[in-house]
Amino acid sequence: MRRITRITTVGIASAALALSVTACGGNSSDAGSGSDGDKAAIAYDIGGRGDQSFNDAAYAGLAKAEKDLDIQGSEAEPSDGEGDADKVQRLTELARSGNNPVIGVGFAYAPAIKKVAPKFPKTTFGIIDDASVTGENIANIVFNEEQGSYLAGVAAAKVSKSKTVGFIGGVETPLIKKFEAGFIQGVKDTDASVNVLPQYLTQPPDFGGFSKPDLGKAAAQGQLDKKADVIYSAAGLAGSGAIEAVSKAGKWNIGVDSDQYQQKGLAPYKASILTSVTKDIEDAVFNLIKSVKDGKPETGEIRYGLDKNGVALSMSNPAFADMKDVIAAVDKAKQEIIDGKITVKTAP
């Protein structure tokens, strides 16, 4: 029997009790112990499950592990306006309940994992998109987002008719700047005459730019008004608003993290999603869970780039798959990046 228990910061103590009562495959652990890999948990980033992007990709990895590895999965949702103390409490309860590994989805979990991981030395903690916090029981799952974004820039420059394309970042952080940097470089290397309009929805410490579709929609409309005919959004749930606006304008979207052409929540707009810069978060999560279950837990930096298909451009939209000249340009750029002939910038 496998079960998913959803935990939020509000009422987390009672949720932890529920876990210990309903869980199949282990009792709550003390601070020095971990499960044998029969229970695994993911703690979501801003926007939570249902963002049609980053968090949903992590969930897919957990769901795959439940099916293929016969593990019991738990999910923990973020709360509005939460701080590091809330994340510390969430990760502590997940570890104390016997989950192993416990995976924080997003760099925002770094301070919490730094505090919690040493208290549970037999539990593996994974963190996606952060390599700053390290430890013997910490797995840093990171991606070369700039490489996939470069390919998106190549595609955008090739299909743009107005010679103007847009980039929307959810929050102006070093991680999202990697998306911007790669995209702009790919555009300019392909056609220097194409103008790129970069825009961020919020600035730290306001991370609402990852969770508010209305902000994405307004930003996209502003770029459409400036004649952008291809818009690449790296904004989590907020990106869905941009996708809606671009679709209604009859222009091209480039999605992010998941293959957004395939996301059910975006089905009304799928025809406008030319391609997506995918990160293989699903397999990264699954691989970490499997490593723990196999008794050989992954730790340290685990990097996914173009060379391992850890980042890529999706080909689900038949319209994109039929653009032979665009695909040829993308394939050429991909090979040159892998061969080291092109070095992609990580900052604009």
UniProtKB/TrEMBL annotation:
| Principal subcellular localisation of the protein | membrane
| Domain called ABC transporter substrate-binding protein PnrA-like: residue spans | 45-338
What stretches pass through the bilayer?
none
Q: Which domain of life is it from?
A: Bacteria
Keyword annotations: Cell membrane, Lipoprotein, Membrane, Signal
What does UniProt give as the signal peptide span?
1-23
**What is the annotated localization of this protein?**
Cell membrane
List the InterPro entries.
BMP_lipoprotein, Peripla_BP_I, PnrA-like
Topology versus the membrane:
Lipid-anchor
Query: Of which family is this protein a member?
Result: Belongs to the BMP lipoprotein family.
Q: What is this protein called?
A: ABC transporter substrate-binding protein PnrA-like domain-containing protein
